[in-house]
């Protein structure tokens, strides 16, 4: 997104689809150049991350001279109540806003996919807008809004804002899923005597579950990652982890930040693996 | 009976659309509208919006623009017709965002091409390698890059150990550019890869058989087919780059100012909400126009082929 506001334009989470063709065709021209560029790019992407993780175990307080291996920065992270509070806030906000975004986004996708009504194309355009509006604009407009209606900033404003920017992503993911949905199974259920609610509960919902889980993981990651919007709608004592980290970085580097950053990296790796596993299971 | 059916139908649509529509209007559209209104307001002595309505905030943006042609060779060829503080700010933001998007594209394309041509097993592995930074917190990644490049960071420490002089790698326009490319690369590689992976290479052979040379085959056959990925990747890179805040602060130290950073400052350090709102509205208009034009051009390309 943020920054990462992101994925949807490319479908969902860069899902790996099996390719019909078998072996790679040989391509003589510039093969060496391609390999070189790719290697350098991956090195460029990973060296800073790896270096940061390595130095999170360095006992030197300042500078980048290696002294000795230590776990003390991790120890400090886990005994710092402000960090733990920020992490708890992040988890609360991510969980609740994921829940909200998934429910309202899915309902909206169902209305837009299954019915034709007046003003529909306007809604379609409107639902893309949060993807194009820069995060900073969304952040300050929400700050102004909460000030105008006199809602004091805190967890509530964070959750409201996170639902607002996660919902379009859930909507777009679910819309794609619903487009592939085979409605004859619903008709079959109704022919067999199920009423609409039972059909929804026992047929539609279970079939949509994989999509719902994917979009929930998407919303959860977007919410956990968000800094810019959170920065403007957060209040005293309701900092999320990225907002806390930002404050610490600006105050000057401490090795604790390296340790938190390393932990957050590990968390994203776990989330990526989880998504891949879920998608893999869906296919088989 | 049809009447009753219609009523039930519209009730159901309202029920499904209602919560989402409410959220989108109340917590997205209305805030933007309030921001637009505030951009036309004066400010009180604390910097907060106050009546009366005025055009002064927009006047402040353009007031020092003067016709002043100049050519300089500092940091490449610079030809300017006008100068002005905010004109320069907007220009620099768009220029940095555009250049970084092009550089990101030039790096990402060969990488995505390379990935898409690997045997399946390796393809999935490289895809995984792109997805990790894609899903990692942007702030954390930019911080990691800054940590690498800073004065007493690993690179300069290595240089000192080798007996070489340390180099200033941070807090320049170049550093901001590197930060933008670093941060946005995964957002460009992934959509490009998704398009390239679906691309059927026999089409190129067909084009060649029909007498097209490599460049023609690329331009007329490949480009239109991968343009969805190209458009998606460029927008995902350009939009955040124009409004970037984290990168400007961490890599540029706030010295290479960009519009997103200036807007943020109006809401924190120097409290001037009306002026900040005016800048934000102008930026939003520019980004939206750029995105719409780009979408259009992408679609035109596809139509030309069909």
UniProtKB/TrEMBL annotation, chain B:
Domain ABC transmembrane type-1 span(s) in chain numbering: 90-294
Cellular compartments per GO CC: plasma membrane
PROSITE patterns: ABC_TM1
A biological-process GO annotation: transmembrane transport
Pfam families in UniProt: BPD_transp_1
Location of this chain's protein in the cell: Cell membrane
Transmembrane segments: 21-41, 94-115, 127-149, 169-193, 225-248, 275-295
Major place of residence: membrane
Keywords carried by this UniProt record: Cell membrane, Membrane, Transmembrane, Transmembrane helix, Transport
Database matches in Gene3D superfamilies: MetI-like (1.10.3720.10)
Alphabetical list of InterPro entries matching this protein: MetI-like, MetI-like_sf
Record's bilayer topology term: Multi-pass membrane protein
Keyword Transferase: no
Domain of life of the organism encoding this protein: Bacteria
Family: Belongs to the binding-protein-dependent transport system permease family. CysTW subfamily.
Name the UniProt record assigns to this protein: Spermidine/putrescine ABC transporter permease
Source species: Candidatus Thermofonsia Clade 3 bacterium
């Amino acid at each position: 997104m943020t920054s990462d506001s992101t994925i949807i334009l490319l479908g969902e989470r860069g899902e790996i689809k099996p390719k019909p063709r078998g072996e790679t065709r040989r391509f003589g021209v510039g093969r060496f150049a391609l390999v070189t560029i790719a290697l350098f790019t991956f090195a460029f992407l990973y060296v800073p991350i790896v270096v940061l993780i390595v130095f999170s175990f360095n006992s030197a307080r300042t500078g980048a001279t290696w002294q000795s291996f230590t776990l003390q920065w991790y120890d400090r992270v886990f005994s710092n109540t402000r960090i733990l509070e920020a992490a708890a806030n992040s988890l609360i906000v991510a969980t609740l806003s994921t829940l909200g975004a998934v429910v309202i986004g899915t309902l909206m996708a169902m209305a837009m996919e299954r019915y034709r009504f007046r003003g529909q194309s306007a809604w379609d355009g409107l639902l893309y807008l949060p993807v194009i509006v820069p995060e900073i604009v969304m952040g300050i407009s929400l700050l102004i809004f909460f000030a105008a209606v006199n809602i004091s900033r805190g967890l509530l404003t964070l959750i409201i804002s996170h639902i607002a920017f996660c919902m379009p992503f859930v909507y777009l993911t679910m819309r794609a899923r619903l487009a592939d949905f085979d409605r004859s199974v619903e008709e079959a259920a109704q022919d067999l005597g199920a009423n609409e609610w039972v059909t929804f509960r026992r047929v539609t919902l279970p079939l949509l579950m994989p999509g719902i889980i994917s979009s929930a993981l998407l919303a959860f990651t977007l919410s956990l990652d968000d800094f810019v919007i959170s920065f403007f709608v957060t209040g005293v004592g309701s900092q999320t982890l990225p907002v806390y980290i930002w404050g610490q970085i600006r105050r000057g580097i401490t090795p604790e930040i390296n340790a938190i950053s390393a932990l957050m990296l590990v968390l994203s790796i776990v989330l990526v693996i989880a998504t891949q596993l879920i998608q893999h299971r869906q296919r088989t | 009976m049809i009447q009753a059916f219609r009523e039930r139908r519209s009730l159901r649509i309202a029920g499904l659309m209602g919560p989402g529509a409410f959220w989108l209007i109340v917590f997205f559209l209305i805030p933007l509208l309030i921001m637009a209104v505030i951009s036309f307001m004066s400010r009180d002595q604390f910097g907060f919006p106050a009546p009366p309505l005025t055009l002064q905030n927009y006047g402040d943006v353009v007031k020092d623009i003067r016709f002043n042609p100049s050519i300089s060779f500092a940091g490449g060829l610079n030809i300017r017709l006008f100068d002005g503080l905010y004109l320069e700010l907007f220009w620099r933001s768009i220029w940095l965002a555009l250049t970084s998007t092009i550089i990101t594209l030039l790096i990402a394309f060969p990488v995505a091409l390379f990935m898409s041509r690997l045997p399946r097993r390796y393809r999935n592995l490289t895809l995984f390698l792109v997805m990790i930074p894609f899903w990692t917190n942007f702030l954390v990644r930019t911080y990691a890059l800054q940590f690498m490049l800073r004065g007493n960071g690993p690179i300069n420490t290595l240089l000192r150990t080798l007996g070489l002089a340390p180099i200033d790698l941070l807090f320049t326009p170049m550093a901001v550019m590197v930060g933008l490319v670093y941060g946005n690369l995964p957002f460009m590689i992934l959509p490009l890869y998704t398009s390239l992976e679906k691309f059927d290479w026999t089409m190129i052979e067909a084009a060649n058989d029909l007498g097209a040379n490599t460049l023609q085959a690329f331009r007329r056959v490949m480009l239109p087919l991968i343009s969805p990925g190209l458009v998606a990747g460029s927008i995902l890179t350009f939009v955040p780059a124009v409004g970037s805040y984290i990168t400007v602060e961490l890599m540029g130290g706030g010295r290479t100012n960009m519009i997103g950073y200036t807007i943020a400052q109006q809401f924190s350090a120097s409290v001037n909400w009306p002026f900040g709102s005016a800048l934000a509205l102008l930026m939003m208009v520019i980004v939206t126009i750029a995105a719409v034009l780009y979408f259009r051009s992408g679609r035109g390309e596809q139509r030309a082929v069909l």
